[in-house]
Amino acid sequence: xxTGTAATRRRMIEQVGAGVLAAGGLLLLAPRARADLVKxxxxxxxxxxxxxxxxxxxxxxxxxxxxxxQSVPLTAAVxxxxxxxxxxxxxxxxxxxxxxxxxxxxxxxxxxxxAEFSTRMRLAQTQNVWAVAEMSDxxxxxxxxxxxxxxxxxxx
Length: 156
Description:
The structure is a single chain. By secondary structure, this protein is of the alpha+beta class. It has 2 domains: 1-30; 37-149, Immunoglobulin-like (Sandwich), CATH 2.60.40.2470. 25% of the residues lie in helices and 35% in strands. The chain has 2 helices and 9 strands; from the N terminus they run ααβββββββββ. It has helices spanning 3-29, 37-48; strands at residues 54-55, 58-61, 65-66, 72-78, 88-95, 102-107, 115-121, 127-135, 140-149. Strands 1, 3, 5, 6, 8 and 9 form a 6-stranded mixed β-sheet that branches. Strands 2-4-7 form a 3-stranded antiparallel β-sheet, with no helix packed on it. β8 and β9 (140-149) form a beta hairpin. The longest helix is centred in the N-terminal third of the chain and has 27 residues, at 3-29. The protein is elongated, with a radius of gyration of 22 Å.
């Protein structure tokens, strides 16, 4: 390798490194967008329309206190017979304190056997997490739980 090539590479690496540091600094200065209750409710309306969710049928298991919001376990289950004429179609998970209110949606069919799943999610701060289930008959069921977060998992 010639001296000119090594110098050019070194200069390029220095410039890329400076660009990455500058971009990182801008990200630190930029205000973080957060969902809030109004945004979460708006998203829920987009998902379920004018239907009114009822309490019950949905179980959401999460720790009351998350020491670290980077990876918070959750299990959601819906009381449904999962027959061709009576089953849970989809479960939406929403969080009103994360950068985006919509966390995930899981779709089911009668062949799923049961409407239940476990996953992990990030929580930016103490907030409510909602599980909203849409059933095959058009009814909507929900539950929510508050999780206290001591160290945020979305850069907070």
